[in-house]
Every structure is written in C-alpha cells, then in structure tokens.
Amino acid sequence: MKSVKLTASALAIAAVAATAASARDQVQSAGSSTVLPYATIVAEAFGENFDFPTPVVESGGSGAGRKKLCEGVGENTIDIANSSSRISQSDIDLCAQNGVTEIMEVRFGYDGIVFASDIDGPSFAFTPADWFQALAAQVVVDGQVVANPNSNWSDVNAELPDQEILAFIPGTKHGTREVFDTKVLVAGCEESGAYEAFVAANNGDEDAAEEACMTVRTDGVSVDIDGDYTETLARIDANPNAIGVFGLSFYQNNTDKLKVATMNGVEPSVESVASGEYPVSRPLYFYVKKAHIGVIPGLQEYIDFFVSDDMAGPEGPLAAYGLVPDPELAATQEMVANGTPMGPLN
Fold first, then answer.
1. pLDDT (tens digit, 9 = 90+) per residue, 186-222?
2. Long-range contacts of the stretch 150-158 (C-beta < 8 A, 24+)
3. Does residue 202 contact residue 211 with C-beta atoms inside 8 Å?
4. What does pTM read for this prediction?
5. Ramachandran class of 74: left when φ > 0, alpha when ψ lies in -120 to 50, beta otherwise
6. Which residues touch 198 (CB under 8 Å, ≥6 apart)?
7. Cα–Cα distances in angstroms (integers) from residue 251 to residues 116, 195, 246, in the given order
C-alpha cells in the first residue's frame, strides 16, 4: 500500500484519535451569539444535503469562542470560532503558543447594531454623543470632568423623550460590546468634546482618555447582558422604559415587539448597512483551524457551503434571516477554496 505522509498537526489529531473509542466525525464550532443563528441555519442545511453529520454549533461569546479555538490542535478541540468582532493579536499569540499556527479568517457578511425599545413606547432619534452622555461614568459639565449626573434621556438631549435612562448593553465578552464601545461610546465621547477633556485630565495620555470614554456607569443605569439577545428582549418585556442593544437581524425578526431608533438620522436596514450609510455596523466572521482541514470529515465541505451563493448570497437563507451580504463574497469563496490562512493583522 502506498505510504501516506502526515503533517505534524495531522499526527497530533491522529494520536488523540488512537486513544479514543472512535474518532470525531462531526464539525464543531463555538462563539458569537450573533453568528449563532446563521451558523445553525448553515449546519442544519449541511446535515440535510451532505453525507456528513450535522455540525455542532455552540454559543458562549466571540472572545470565548476564539479562546477555545486557540486551546490547541486535536479532535478534542473545536474546528471553528464564530465571531462578531475581528480576532485580536492576543488571540493569535495564544493560538501560536498552543500550536495553532495557521488560521483562516472568513468574513461572510455584515450586521448592524441597533437600539430598540418596547413597541408601544416613544420613538428615539439618537446620536453616539447621546449614548455617551447617558452611559459614561464621567462626563464634562461646564468644562469640568464630573460623575455623570444625567437621569433622563431629556437631560442628555432636550429633543429626546423625558424618560428615565435604563440601557441593556452587551456584556464585555460579546463581540457586539467591542463595536458598541468603539463606534458608539468612543465616537460619542469625541463628538461631545469629552475626549479632549479626558486627555487633558490624564496628562496627555490618549489611551487613558479612550478608556475613560468606554467606562460605563455602575449605578444601575447601564446593565451588562451576558446572555444572548433573547435575554435582552426579556429584560425589555419586564422594563418597558428600557433601551436595548441588538443585532439588526434579531430586531428584524422581532418587529412585533420592538421599535428601532435612528442613529444620526438613519434608520437601520439591510440597505443602509450595505451602503455604509448606517454608522453602527460590523463584519461577521468565522475562524477556521487549518490543521483540522482534511482531518475532521466534512470541515472543508462545510466552510465551502457556508460561504456559497446558495447560503450567504443575496438570495440565500442567511440574507432572508437578516444578514447583509458581503459584496466581496466571491473573493472569500476563492480564499476558502484555496485554504489561504490569514496574514498579520492590519
């Protein structure tokens, strides 16, 4: 019989498999709760249309999923990390320490981050500065950095409803939180002029100023939600005066319960996110451990299927659920087919 050469990574998986009763024959992924419904749709369709078991898709948060991906190589580790924020250098370094040296970065579409409240409540027209002034631990009043005194949205902006500030925002382990911090809190901090005051208060330290921009109140006005968007929706059901942070697709599937706010005068929609007009949007990713391709049955076929026109294209089921299709999907398909690992972070 012709001899077969195995890579070091393949040997690592084979060694684990040799000690197990049976080798793993099912693709496994974990991570973002935002990506979870998309990955579940793909996994179920894959199981129905291919001669492989339906892949396992678990949640847990973007950061947690990337850390699980970086635990090492072998069938006792996951194949894919789903993520609503881009991988960090610290993740890449952890992967390298544990022998995960080649990672494929797959961007499969976009999503908007929306701000929604009870369907029967008042309408809101926000700016990032409104959210900073409402939730930041410290704000600038009469040129002085002070503890946030605002209790109602009308205190922040006289054109907003006279309603108490209560916001349910993603917890720090969610990819959505990273985008919220950057595109809402930091952007609002800069718009309001507080950023310059924070720089001055921290002796010119811009990193400390940015951290101050992202530090939220701890007096019960801003509440971290560590679960998925269904938990945020349940909190709003119990607190009709609250505002929640959601993914666009989740909102679109709950328009009978939620009223969405505009941001900078733009209503979030597939069209406004795709055009770049809506200011708070983000790409969605999944990260593949390349060492498992060709070893875990069905992994290559699954990722090919995920980014296919049939699934991630404008007429596919992911778009029907709320995904904003990536205009550069063809380039992603080629990258996936060629197994091209990601290069250094830009």
1. 999 999 999 999 999 999 999 999 999 999 999 999 9
2. 151/221, 153/124, 156/130, 157/127, 157/130, 157/133
3. no
4. 0.74
5. left
6. 138, 145, 189, 208, 209, 210, 212, 213
7. 8, 31, 7
Q: Are strands 144-147 and 138-141 parallel, antiparallel or unpaired?
A: antiparallel
Q: Any idea what DSSP says for residue 20?
A: S
Give the residues of the chain that fall short of pLDDT 50.
1-22
Among residues 80, 56, 73, which one has the least CA distance to residue 14?
73
pLDDT tens column, 92-117:
999 999 999 999 999 999 988 999 99
Distance CA 45, CA 7 (A): 31
Is the distance from CB of 300 to CB of 290 less than 8 angstroms? no
C-alpha atoms less than 13 angstroms from C-alpha of 39 in its C-beta half-sphere: 27
Q: How far apart are CA 101 and CA 213, in angstroms?
A: 35
CATH number of 8-110+283-338: 3.40.190.10
The CA distance from 149 to 133, in Å, is: 9
Tell me, what DSSP letter sits at residue 266? B
Measuring CA to CA, which residue among 118, 128, 230 is closest to residue 163?
Answer: 118
53 near 59, Cβ under 8 Å? no
For the chain, give the percent of residues with pLDDT over 70. Answer: 93
Give CATH for domain 112-281.
Answer: 3.40.190.10
Residue 194: Cβ-neighbour burial (10 angstroms; 0-12, 13-18, 19+): buried
In the numeric block, which tokens belong to residue 306?
Answer: 């995920």
pLDDT value at position 193? 94
**CA 310 to CA 327: how far, in whole Å?**
15
Comma-separated ranges of CATH 3.40.190.10 domains in the chain: 8-110+283-338, 112-281
Q: How many other C-beta atoms can be found within 10 angstroms of the C-beta atom of residue 334?
A: 11
CA distance 217 to 117: 20
Residue 305 CB coordination number (10 Å): 20
